[in-house]
Amino acid sequence: MKTFLTILIVAMPITLFAQTAGQKSGERSLMKVIEDVKQCMEKIDRTELEKVKARAEEEGEKIKALCREGKRDKAQAEAVDL
Q: What are the pLDDT digits (tens) for 32-61?
């Protein structure tokens, strides 16, 4: 889960730089950020990422099942614990 959050945090600056895409310096900055993110993504252990994905999907199913059973508070607690 930490790996997924790290990827998410690394990718977030792209949104901030997208606002300046109309400016040449902003475009260069955006391209640099995109390239940095690509390089970072290449270093990620794909096997570990797949494990995180599988766990997230399993937990998501558990949470949905709890919601269907009317156990909203338990589902919310499980989601927060992720």
A: 999 999 998 888 888 998 999 999 999 999
